[in-house]
Amino acid sequence: MTRHSLIGLILVLLFVAPVLAGTLKGVTLPDTLTIGDQTLVLNGMALRKKVIFKVYVAGLYLPAKEKNSGTILAADQTRCTVMHFLRSVEAGKISEAWFDGLKANTPNHSPELKKLFDTLASLMEDLKEGDKLVFTYLPGKGTEVKVKGTIKGTLGDKAFADALFACWIGPKPGPGEGFKEDLLGI
Amino acid sequence: MNKTFTIRATVKESAAPVVSLYERRKPRRTRPTVFFFLLLVAFLLAVHFLNLILQWTVIRLELAHGPVFESPAYSFLGFSAFSQKEIAAIRYFENSSLATRIFGFFDFSHPAIFAIWNKKDMAFIDLGPVVVAVPAGFSRASFSPGSIFLLQQGKKTAVRYYGDAIAGRAWHAFLTKKYRDPKNNEGQLPVSFVVKSLETSRYLKIPYLIYFFLPLLLIGITIIRFGLSMFAAFLYYVEMFFLFDYQNLFVKIPFGWIWQLLDSKISETLSQFIAAALAIVFVASAVFGLWHWEKLKVSPWQRRFLLLFVLLPLALYF
Q1: With an 8 Å Cβ cutoff, are B194 and A140 in contact?
Q2: Of A7, A15, A99, B132, which residue is the least packed, with the fewest Cβ within 10 Å?
Q3: pLDDT tens digits, residue range A93-111?
Q4: Nearest beta carbon to residue A149 from set B130, B194, B268
Q5: Are residues B186 and B227 in the same domain?
């Protein structure tokens, strides 16, 4: 009996998958994410468009739903952004967007922050349709960077996480105000 | 009826006892269970130590054949028990003219420990599986099994997990608690690090190749020798699925050469699908073995081999 229970448990652990999810432009993101012992909820989903091309769908995950970007950036709590690409984008283009976001939203950044963005840029790869970039800020540990399902590293402290997340929800979001509002669920 | 009974009784009493060769043999001495238990523990400890040597060797080779970003001066001291004096002297290298000086060694619980003298603050330094931004001054980076490293500088510490295993984060949480000493901790060190790709590394992938193919060969041999019940030994792979990065262990490292031959890179979705499919095959194989385990009589050696395969992942992980 115990043996059968063990086998059953293994099978359950292998096949358990998130059931509830949000959908935008054919991209489905789970309603909740579990990171360590913390559960994050999907705050909002947004589509990044460039001229007429759909580039990626992003999802912002927070411990609780929040509509104020200042409150999100001020809080030292776990947060995560998932970028699901809808078309091929070169690594160089992605890196360029990071530097533009840093310049626009954190103009008086320190050289250390610039160095960390250089490292972030070095972690980027050419992405194809269906590939994902996942950025998870863990308080006291830094921002974990996942490219195409592979953990590439953990960078910086809260200042770096704030500068990175400000690229989407800062005062001058690269993908536009509408994109920011969708992520904030406004 | 009575007469017949008497005759039969007489025959039985007068018959000479038949002694076979088998009965003449001395009864075999059975070794106590404790003996096998001790033998098993000794074997698993030997596997653990060999695994540490393997990991140390691949890290050393990785660094000796070209570190990324910068090329600091490395000195590889080997097993710590044989280099006690050298390790004690590392702290006196402060005035070294080199920007970064690194001394590496390993002990019975860490596959690699690096003592680092660094003059450039937060310079990214290649430490084998990861490239870490190390603060200026003297630091110590100790790699624990299960893809975790502890960075210490003075009384400041940081424990970081750089793997992607299902059980890895729980082990990380346990080690973080262990190293967090409220009396002797002045706070967290800021740590940025970049994880090196096992697939593209010439040396770092070697342990995963051994973890995948060697037990497969051994399980195959035990199935041929002892029968279908030994399929239960596939429990080894079921445990490995949870303890190690299953995509690297089951797909990207052992079968990555197929995609290299096709001059392409395996996608995340396909890699996850193949790894999950293999995991299901391993679970099914283990269940198949356990099913036969119930039906057939198994020898003590079969039980011991199964116990060995069940405990082997723990010896490789810790």
Answers
A1: no
A2: A15
A3: 999 999 999 999 998 888 8
A4: B268
A5: no
- Average pLDDT of the residues in A28-33: 89
Tell me the CB-side half-sphere exposure of residue B20, using CA atoms within 13 A. Answer: 2
**Within a domain: residue B219?**
yes
Q: Which domain holds residue B232?
A: 205-317
Most B CBs within 10 Å, among A2, A14, A128, A135, to test the B interface = A14
Q: Phi-psi region for residue B154, left (φ > 0), alpha (ψ -120 to 50) or beta?
A: left
Does the interface predicted TM-score (ipTM) exceed 0.85? no
> Is B80 near chain A, with CB under 8 Å?
no
**Element (H or E) spanning A5, and its range?**
helix A2-15
C-beta atoms of A122 and B194 within 8 A: yes
Cα angle at A143 between A141 and A148, to 5 degrees?
Answer: 130
End position of a domain, from candidates B195, B218, B253: B195
**Is B32 inside any structural domain?**
no
Question: Does A149 lie at the interface with B, CB-CB under 8 angstroms?
Answer: yes
For residue B72, being part of any structural domain is answered with yes
The per-residue pLDDT for range B160-211, each reduced to its tens digit, is 999 888 888 888 888 888 877 666 555 677 789 999 988 888 899 999 999 9
For the cut 50, the answer to whether the pLDDT of residue A1 exceeds it is no
Domain locations in chain A as residue ranges: 19-184
